[in-house]
Write the structure tokens for this entry.
Amino acid sequence: MKRNGEYLMNKYLLVVLSMIATPLLAVGAEKETDSRPNIILVMADDLGWSDIGCYGGEIETPHIDSLARDGLRFTQFYNNAVCGPTRASLLTGLYCQQVGHRGDRWNEPKDFNKCVTLGEVLQQTGYNTAMVGKWQGRDSALDRGFDRFFGPMCQAKISYFHEVKSNPYFVDRERVELPDDFYLTDALNDYALDFLKTSVTKSKPFFLYVAHIAPHWPLHAREADVAHYREEYQNLGWDEVRRRRFESQRKSGLIPTEWELASRPSGIRDWEVDKFKSWQAERMAVYAAQVTAIDRGVGQLLQTLKEAGEVENTLVMFLSDNGAAPDGGLTPNKSGFGFSPSNKNATWRKDGEAIRPGSGPDNLPGPHDTFAAYGLAWANASNTPIRGTKMEGYEGGICTPLVVRWPAVIHDGDQLTRQPGHVIDFMATFLDVANADYPTEFNGRRPLPVEGKSLLPIFQGQQREEHEQLCWMVPRHHVIRVGNWKAVRPSKGGTWQLFNLAADGTETTDLSTREPKRLEQLASQFEAWRKRVGTDE
């Protein structure tokens, strides 16, 4: 594993020299402070590529945007198109197929013995570790390297205001009852802040992983936050939102000017002819309110770092686990909104109160007894300008915003990098930052060799060695990227499409018939990769 570079080596040298020059500490005196960098990783769930302000969005995210103003944005950073698989890769540095595609099989022998987590390796090397939010393992985060944990055991049925029967909440290993004024995102923010305030008082560096569930459906938000956006989305509509975001992205240099806006999927009406504008606007207003709540928590963390004097020495990263998600996991009825009768009056909440699945002009989203998503038209706008949504292999499914701030290393703010990266790179990156090695043996396990490559050279303003290839098996597609070339085919069988991402990052022009030999080579490489990592889809 590569070491940090000149900055960190100089820090360690100074520490060693000071220890030589200083008399031995008296018995019982506090030990020398470990000066390795702190790490904060914040991840949203189902957030679209352009939803935050620094990626062109109109949703107010001043604290996340401040990370970009003082740091670095990636324009081509990848996830696994679905929450569980992304978390499996992020935590292990491996392709999700190597450790159980769903990402929830940490304690099954065939997968458990293949990997270690970020928490485990950083904890072993001396970091304080803490996590809040979405843990999809069948065991506890405390069993996989985290000293502290708060969150639910996450399954598909979610409420932001109440406990759901299959999602009990824990603080560390203790079951907790939720207060009457509970709101999930605020609770995650509060516990993350509490864990951080404890961590900054200790002599060891810390790793804080904040795995938000918002803005994943259902559309639940506090009324005050929703009201802030209600009129704006009634006035704009999805067509104007998409146009403004695209213009902002071009103007800022986030995307090349030659890229075209991806075609709108069939079935999306023009905003002007939609008959239910108030309902449609309410959907996006609630979604925006959910994103605002995440940003509020990021601001609290940044303020605590500032007050503790830990800004310079803390690597802060923000991303999403997949692209925007149009649906809410329930089956639409023939009217195009609302849901089938079998889903009405669902009673999966712990308190037994029935909820009203679906959404429509007479069932607006937002309150505690609703369960809805914001639909394809808004999801398409969330992913401006790229093609596709969650579960797909097009860029809109697998591309995430990634914002990085680390003042001690990233000296100039408002930077962009077009070097591709992937969530498998976090393991290699954090080991590099922590001056630690990837284990060949860990508590009786023999982890597979890490697949990712360190992002540290990019943070340092250098060109890193690229991945020879990146591959995906996501629910709707198989994908391979080599250099700027990307091939996509349906996962259930079908022909490959070919795109040149340098010239056409929004995947508007299929070049498969013009470049048959190149496509044949990519298809062959994909099959070799698939055989190597396994075919568990």
Remarks:
- The CA atoms of residues 114 and 122 lie 18 Å apart.
- Confidence is low (pLDDT under 50) at residues 1-31, 329-342.
- The domain at 468-537 is CATH 3.30.1120.10 (Arylsulfatase, C-terminal domain).
- The chain is about 30% helix and 15% strand.
